[in-house]
Amino acid sequence: MTAETAIRPAAPVATPAMNPRTQRLLHGPMLPALLRLALPNTLVMLAQASVGLIETWWVGHLGTDALAGMALVFPGFMMMQMLSGGAMGGGIASAIARALGGGRREDADALVLHAVLINGALGLLFSALVIGFGPALYRALGGEGASLDAALAYSDVVFAGAVLVWLYNAFASVLRGTGNMLLPSLAVVLGVVLLVPLSPLLIFGLGPVPALGVAGAGWAVVITSALTAVLLGWAVCTGRSIARLRPARLRAALFGDILKVGAVASLSTFQTTLTVMLTTAVVGAAGGPDAIAGYGTGNRLEYLLIPLVFGLGAPLVALVGTNIGAGQGERALRIALLGGGLAFLLTEAIGLAAAIWPMAWLGLFGDDPRMLETGATYLRVVGPTFGFFGLGLSLYFASQGAGQLLWPLLAGGLRLLIAVGGGTAALLLTGSLAWVFAALALALVAYGTLIAGVVASGAWFRRGPVA
Known about the structure:
Blueprint: H1 3-7, H2 20-27, H3 30-60, H4 64-101, H5 105-140, H6 145-160, H7 162-177, H8 182-204, H9 214-237, H10 252-325, H11 329-356, H12 358-362, H13 369-382, H14 386-402, H15 406-430, H16 433-456
């Protein structure tokens, strides 16, 4: 059997009994369908990303050490978000989309239970690992003294509630896999609205509420995550979703349907986070905690692109997965490339703006000269290549929908090699952080170009490494 026949069932599956939302994914105009699904999802992803920005802004008032501590923890927290929502979440959404596209409604319902069990178990495991090994990790990344204390104060709280993040992303991914982007959007926006007053209240205290410092920012995240998980769980359990949480017999095939995409996508997420962590260590070795704070603050804008692109990526998983399940491979590929082009334009515009006006971003979080200098250098050098990151990331999500993730994984490995290996070599040869950041920029260009070239060549549909 060829790769093409493996993902293109012979019999058409669109029937009068198919849900109208699924029918629109299969037969509606591509650009309007993508934009209609992406708009609420993009807004909610921006709202979700603002959680970190709100926290960073308030924590910045506690001083540079607190800001550096947040920079040490942030890659791990973002990795958890990416794993639960983008990697395993993508596997969940892809499996449900393909089941609905293939007319397998009972399998779609059963996949919901399997998704909750997978993400729940991984959330508990993540908590244990980070709380147990966090101190050694943050020291290895350059944390020391007050910055290390701040990192641990925040990390121990926010990762104690990690399972809540994994659960609400499981429920959100179920809804997105059915093409429903609105309900996850509303739930996450409500959580952010609550976070805006809650974070400074718990950080600085007011009246009977004690000042918890940087730990208060962690408690604000835990509380809002719990609320979001309850709301999304209610939506999936009470019939607001095409695929519902029901009692079902556990089946290895359904676990495998999620994990064959989610597990490979998790490796890609580890690559992204490892790239940032190792680069943070290189920057710390060169410039100390102030430079870490500057790089972490500038790099936070790059991380902001991830939920922004996910606003397009989640609809791509649903659209591509549903069309692949229905045997419409050519339409799936056109949708993927359309989404990739939109993501490139959006993220490149942000990167160019950051390169031209870096202080407009960095000045929001502090005024330490060393922090501003390092952050501005990073944005001026790396910002103009943000479009390639957006291009590659959007096609990574599209590849999740197709169930074809080896090439995005290889592209992530290439990015890691160029960024960390090239950055370390540049530092040893020149002693300049500007050349370290040049290696990061080259890595982003290579990442986006490789994925786009392979997907556009039709690698999803032919025998080869991705089959």
